Amino acid sequence: QEMRNPADARDLVGRVAWASDGDVNAALDAARVWDAPAAERAEVLRRVADLYEAHYGELFALCAREAGKMVGDSVAELREAADFLRYYAAHAPDAAPVGRFACISPWNFPLAIFTGQVAAALAAGNAVLAKPAEQSPLIAHRAVRLFHEAGVPRAALQLLPGAGEVGAALTADPRVDGVAFTGGTDTARRIRAAMADNLAPGAPLIAETGGLNAMIVDSTALPEQAVQAIVESAFQSAGQRCSALRMLYVQQDIADNLLEMLYGAMEELGIGDPWLLSTDVGPVIDEASAKKITDHCEKYEKRGELLKKLSIPEKGNFVSPAVLRVTGIQDLKEEIFGPVLHVATFDAKEIDQVVDDINAKGYGLTFGVHSRVDHRVDRIASRIKVGNTYVNRNQIGAIVGSQPFGGEGLSGTGPKAGGPQYVRRFMK
Ligand code: UN1
Questions:
Q1: Peptide linkage before 321 cis (omega within 30 of 0)
Q2: What's the 415 CA to ligand 1 centre distance in angstroms?
Q3: Tens digits of per-residue pLDDT, 248-287?
Q4: Ligand 1 test: best mutation among 136, 405, 416, most atoms within 8 Å of CB?
Q5: Are the CB atoms for 244 and 341 separated by under 8 Å?
Q6: Is the pTM of this model over 0.85?
Q7: SS3 call for 309
Q8: How far, in Å, CA of 254 to CA of 106, rounded?
Q9: 173 C-alpha to ligand 1 centroid (Å)
Q10: Which residues of the chain fall short of a pLDDT of 50?
């Protein structure tokens, strides 16, 4: 299978052979838990972090060429991956591991989340079967080579690149003892069902899934700060983060001014080749994704509810960052994984109702609030049901160790990644 650059299909990044059923079977037979002492495992994981940092140029290039990541995002990606390695190394327990762990990771953080799952499972001494997203196997392959170079035994970490079939084969095989998964809520449900049918009762599933993340901006918010936070939360990484802002509520008294300022800020975004330092918004991951996002926006445009759209390069999987008008979060049927922001206004008296509407969707990943009234912030934050609440800042880019990341409800099982409970879930 050829892997091509999402910004420019002429750029052939590399080739990958998918794992067959026979490969999955052989890997499960060969898998052995990593029975080195905890201190030694921790030492090796810290060495992986050092190797990642030493190979930064190559990893940035793979992030850009295989996953369409702009330079700032690639730097954050490597930073987070190294942080996960060192943080979980610091939590490596002298206790029995669960056993064979399947780690199924997404393309939107092809190094960071891939590394986070694998590092936690290895810190606890598990045998890992790593299945990266089919859109980003080359980065995962380079990462696994660096794990092995640092001293992780080959039988403790095996790479199984492939599409859904490989994940399905792993999660339905009784030789697997636990699963870590980041991706869509529907896939998580299928994994849970397959595990219930085939794995030992009590096999852990650690799932981090989607969200319909909202932000509330009230009339006391500092507009310049709110606008910067909105632009970053909705459009950075081309909106391809499960933490990204999808649904903005602006108090109607300030809406006209705030939205005018937002459209002006959007005009300043550089959209294009992620390898250029001038680029703020790169392509989306593939054609199928671009089509789904574009179709969604066209539906709103036909109804006269497209408020703002930017122009984009003609070639490559680019979609226009856009702002769409809705009456509220109840209008959103599903997570649109791209640079698309839905906006509604609210009257000051309705603020509790807005929070109830957000909670009623059943997701619970990130939430943002901009206000200079402390008691209002406290009331909203205490009523909203999400994993991560951000006040007067953007709502993406959780920092390992200080901002454990993860949701509740339809957004995930916990424990939070980059938090003190995470590695425990990989222990028996
Ligand atoms: C995801 O997009 O799959 O805080 C979750 C953040 C990241 C999100 C990761 N840790 O933006």
A1: no
A2: 14
A3: 999 999 999 999 999 999 999 999 999 999 999 999 999 9
A4: 405
A5: no
A6: yes
A7: strand
A8: 38
A9: 29
A10: none
